[in-house]
Amino acid sequence: MDMADHPAAPPLTVMTVNIHKGFTTFNRKFILPELRDAVRKIGADVVFLQEVLGSHEGHGRRIQDWPDEPHYEFLADSIWPQYAYGRNVVYPKGEHGNAVMSKFPIVHFQNHDVSLPGPEKRGLLHCVLRVPGQPVDVHAICVHLGLAESHRVQQLDLLCEMVRSEVPDNAPLVVAGDFNDWRRRANAILEREIGLREVFVHAYGESAKTFPARFPLLSLDRIYVRNASVHLPVVLPRRPWSHLSDHAPLVAEIHL
């Protein structure tokens, strides 16, 4: 049978952004409703979110536009019928973590705690997506690594171990999020150990600068793929995004 008899699955648009718990820089203003509108306009199939509030009793009482539901549910609304949340940090009045929103069924998800001794709590949220027209499930991992380089090195090792044990060799894999990897050490490690390619490096020769969003200097946010190709990854423009997050969001079209 000719390969033309098997139409290729449509491309998958993915987006990643650290939403800073729904507040502007320095927590001056709550902008989650504006953020939801901006994310909707991108129309991504799968959205990787970091620093998402699951709950916060104090904010809910004093902020007028505070949603009744967890922020990942508020953001997903009717656009992304499937979502998963991984709680990383718990404090007296609330909690936050990573989330994945998907237009396709999430058939399984698991949050991996990769926190190391110290105040920072970090996680890797692994989701398995069932994409129509794709014979093998797509694996998506939402990442938020530590600020200390010694922690990031250990967390990258944990990420590699997780991929080896949980992701089939032939499965399409997308790993995205806030790597805090300002020294750009992760790319070589992830390509050597588990065959991940960073989409901006592959397309343009270097990682995208994403932080601070107003005048990006550091390459903190990344999208990596395996068993997939990427078309024209982009950093979203300063307007309106520099008002909505201190990290510039990344978007890429993934071909499975």
From TrEMBL:
<keyword id="KW-0540">Nuclease</keyword>
<dbReference type="GO" id="GO:0016020">
    <property type="term" value="C:membrane"/>
</dbReference>
<dbReference type="GO" id="GO:0006506">
    <property type="term" value="P:GPI anchor biosynthetic process"/>
</dbReference>
<dbReference type="Pfam" id="PF03372">
    <property type="entry name" value="Exo_endo_phos"/>
</dbReference>
<feature type="domain" description="Endonuclease/exonuclease/phosphatase">
    <location>
        <begin position="15"/>
        <end position="247"/>
    </location>
</feature>
<keyword id="KW-0269">Exonuclease</keyword>
<dbReference type="GO" id="GO:0004519">
    <property type="term" value="F:endonuclease activity"/>
</dbReference>
<dbReference type="InterPro" id="IPR036691">
    <property type="entry name" value="Endo/exonu/phosph_ase_sf"/>
</dbReference>
<dbReference type="InterPro" id="IPR051916">
    <property type="entry name" value="GPI-anchor_lipid_remodeler"/>
</dbReference>
<dbReference type="GO" id="GO:0004527">
    <property type="term" value="F:exonuclease activity"/>
</dbReference>
<keyword id="KW-0378">Hydrolase</keyword>
<keyword id="KW-0255">Endonuclease</keyword>
<dbReference type="InterPro" id="IPR005135">
    <property type="entry name" value="Endo/exonuclease/phosphatase"/>
</dbReference>
<protein>
    <submittedName>
        <fullName>Endonuclease/exonuclease/phosphatase family protein</fullName>
    </submittedName>
</protein>
